[in-house]
Request: fold
Amino acid sequence: MQPQANRIEDIRSHFPALERVHSGHPVAYFDGPGGTQVPRSVVEVMNDYLYNHNANTHWGYPTSNETDELIQDARVTFADFLNASSDEIVFGQNMSSLTFHLARALGRGVEPGDEMIVTELDHHANVDTWRSLEKERGVTIRVLPMDAESGQLELADLPALLNKRTKLVAVGAASNAIGTISDVAAVCRQARDAGALSFVDAVHFAPHKLIDVDAIGCDFLACSAYKFYGPHIGILFGRRDLLESIDFPKLRSAPDNSPDRVETGTQSHESIVGAAAAVDFIASLGSGTNRRERLANAFSDMHSRDEELIATLRNGLSSIEGVRVYGPGIDAARTSLVSFTVGDHLSKDVSKYLTGKGIFASHGDFYAATVVERLGVARQGLLRIGCSIYTTAGEVERLIEGVRDFVSEHR
Ligand SMILES: Cc1ncc(COP(=O)(O)O)c(C=O)c1O
Reply:
């Protein structure tokens, strides 16, 4: 293994965006939970597809055959990424669209008064998608609460929410607002025992921990490649028997085999090959005899770095007067994301100040609207700092100094 400093420099050398300078400062991207930067290899694969293999699928000529093969290869790559089978991998525009599509399809099979469970901790792409069935199908939505102090789901409340009418439990693997990692395997087990389906939103989890749909025991899981160094595209895992049997809205003459029957219209082929290249980029950072092993090794390495960065970040920010850090402590299961407020300042203003120092961080509610309401910061919003594979300890120090400067200039 290379020494840490050389290794991070090597990783960074793959990302042209890291050469950007803003107001005389090298840009430090802390907006990974909103979308990560993209390595050269991903863009090259996308260019190559568009220049040399571009076609629609399922026809008899070479570029169409190549497109079919590349898409199938990408399904195999994502099967390795999620520990699934290639015919359980569905591509789509993004997680929200895929989830709406699935909700609409599952909605065709529910009765008024059937129930679904969502959580307070989730991004609303895993809440409002299911809530749409309240109006459309008369589904009753029940809500698993979060504890605002610890930033954890109140898992002990789940059994009381489950009953014979529960059709689905929708839960997030990691919070994109405060970084909590939830025990989704336990949630999926309880859903299964109650005869309900489970849907896991792994969008914020996927860049930080290697997903294993088998170990999680979920029926469905969604993630988005643009959060883990790929292009803007979503990926849905669904258990084969479900993908084959659910009544998905589709065109009469579109393929009826799984997973094609779930994919509406022509896909972004260049994004599919780019997403697979992003998985291969991560795998290239690890060692092992096959892709899954290399991914496991790379993720374990990333996780160790994440832990170091989160400790510096959380401790550093907490030590600044007026800064309030939200979410789980460093000993809890969590990602390398810290959200905070500075006194009564709007998070937008703190973000703007940091931008002047070349520090790019996102602010607001990040579509996790219930989380910011429960934390009592809906008006001022959170400032969110997310570490990525290319984040350095030096950038974290710069960020902490930047917030310290903001506080001393706004006394
Ligand atoms: C946890 C989480 N879930 C869902 C989404 C929505 O993903 P998409 O933009 O692919 O629809 C996001 C996007 O930020 C997210 O962070």
Notes: The pocket of pyridoxal-5'-phosphate is lined by residues 33, 94-96, 123, 125-126, 172, 176, 201, 203-204, 224, 234 (CB under 6 Å). DSSP finds 14 helices and 17 strands in the chain. The first helix runs from residue 4 to 12.
